[in-house]
Amino acid sequence: MNQKEEFEDYQSKLFEQIDEEKFDEALLTCRKALKIKPQDFYIQKKKIEILKYLNKYKKVLIEIKQLIQTVSDDTNQADLYFELGDLFLNRKKYKKAQVHFKIAIRKNDFLNFKCYNQGVKFLAQEEFEKAFVCYKSVGYKFSSKHSALIGEGNFYFHKEKFALAKKCYKRSKAMKPINNFLASVNLSLVLACEQKQEEAKQLLLKGLEKCGQYSFKSLIDYSCKPRLKMYEKKFGSNISEDEKALVKIRLDGIKFIMSLLGEMLEKSKKSNYQFNL
What we know:
elongated, 277 residues, Serine Threonine Protein Phosphatase 5, Tetratricopeptide repeat, mainly alpha
């Protein structure tokens, strides 16, 4: 068997070992393959992936940093910086994660999509800090930056930093002023939680003018209900009477918006508008 055939044999074994979760064996196979082709980027990446599975994070950090020094291609370097960002994110080193995500995106702007999608995933899992880092790292030229700003705003809403939440939602509306239904409803939720019901109502009427029944239902299910659940849980927890009074204001505000959206949903069923989010 010549070296080419031997290398291909190691590649085949590697696929099988990873599929079977035989990570110690897979790591040994990577090392053997790299003796034949030390600069093979794919095998080097697989080695890093296996070390992550084995929870050898210090070794992963060393491997990635060493590999960055030997790789000249921007796309490959971007992948490695993104790996570093992921590593720091999962170890809750959020500032370092954001720095490395941004470097990766500068080298390969396609990674905006990956970063944004990670934010969506973490938000769904209620891992708000991780979601915030991903959304914050997305570049301003990204086509869905207005959605990423909503993600940032949702983080601040969860932390009850309403002034910062409003700023994010308003920036989102400025980037996509037409049919930006998510920005409108999230901004109205903040206003209602601040007992500014009339202002919230007018914003909804104007911002959701062309919103169809499917979008109304999504806005109720994915923007209002999670906030309602969050404050209901807080209301039932061991908090002071003063805190309960404040939570009650938040709950009333969210229920007010849900009621308005419910009315608008019924009206939309009689109209021809069928816009989606």
